[in-house]
């Protein structure tokens, strides 16, 4: 029923507001101070772009991936105003505040998009697939003469038995993960613990989500506790 | 927010994307500020072919820059340093620090504060 769906999606909205968005607003500065190095696959993807390419960084966080390539132009976005403000300093790029499910960009316009460690914060399979569909909507579809735009999507893996969290195949995928912000020594305050919602992806789940969103998996892999996919939009005629 | 950025923005409301009037968005009560950005001629040269020129003309006109060339500079014109400097100034250094961006289709207004536009929608528009 339509009304049930609406209520359902509003509840999920509220859930993510409390368990993802509000947390990032509060931990923005501490989070940012711990995130400074782009991951190798992300760095490679951005470095390989043709100069003059135009793209998106959806869920840009503090903008650490905006420092990789200054020969392309990136419109970055984040749901957190505080993180978007931190990300704004990376010239020549630009930052706006936006929701991954309603991106403020025209259809079929971009040469590339990245969304790094973002999709795993959406709390249902439908919302994760919608987010991927929304990113794919913005990139150029493939045509007979051109390959179209490429999207790099990166999510946290369930299979990470060598990480300090130690999760592995068979463990629960939907979790609240603590973020500990130590109190300042001078104030002698207690450490503060915030909990963020995550959906931990298992092997081949991200590829399935891409397919369900109407995308085509060009390449995929595993890098240090994360699954990644490079996806394209199939030629409208052939799909 | 740079004028170049505004060239790649549309209304966040799903139903507006298909409507021609949803692009470009329209500035309202815009407060401008010039912010220096390093001049990279190659960057401007490579970016220009990707700019929606008509969209840029509409927006620039609304901000009080009526003298944008009628057609997009191409070929040899893009090797002229003064042309590239002028475009650099317009696209990268002209910032809207406060104001609104409005959709010509649904009329929704997005607030720009301290140079950052906020496209989060109220729940009834999602």
UniProtKB/TrEMBL annotation, chain A:
Q: Name one GO cellular component term.
A: cytoplasm
Instruction: Identify the keywords attached in UniProt to this record, alphabetized.
Output: Methyltransferase, Transferase
Tell me where in this chain the Methyltransferase type domain is found: 56-141
GO molecular function ontology, one term from the record: tRNA (5-carboxymethyluridine(34)-5-O)-methyltransferase activity
By its UniProt entry, which InterPro entries does this protein fall under?
A: AlkB_tRNA_MeTrf/Diox (IPR051422), Methyltransf_11 (IPR013216), SAM-dependent_MTases_sf (IPR029063)
SUPFAM superfamilies in the cross-refs: S-adenosyl-L-methionine-dependent methyltransferases
| BP term (GO), one | tRNA wobble uridine modification
The protein's matches in PANTHER family, at most eight in alphabetical order, are given as: ALKYLATED DNA REPAIR PROTEIN ALKB HOMOLOG 8
Q: What is this protein called?
A: Uracil-5--methyltransferase Trm9
Origin species, per record, is Aspergillus homomorphus (strain CBS 101889)
Automatic annotation (TrEMBL), chain B:
Q: Sorted alphabetically, which keywords does the UniProt record give?
A: Cytoplasm, Nucleus
What Gene Ontology terms for biological process does this UniProt record contain? Answer: rRNA (guanine-N7)-methylation; tRNA methylation
Main localization (coarse): cytoplasm
Location relative to the cell: Cytoplasm; Nucleus
What cellular-component terms does GO give this entry? cytoplasm; nucleus
Recorded GO MF terms: protein heterodimerization activity
Concerning InterPro entries, the annotation shows: Trm112 (IPR039127), Trm112-like (IPR005651)
Question: What is the top-level taxon of the source organism?
Answer: Eukaryota
Family assignment from sequence similarity: Belongs to the TRM112 family.
Name of the protein in its database record: Multifunctional methyltransferase subunit trm112
Q: What is the lineage of its organism?
A: Eukaryota, Fungi, Dikarya, Ascomycota, Pezizomycotina
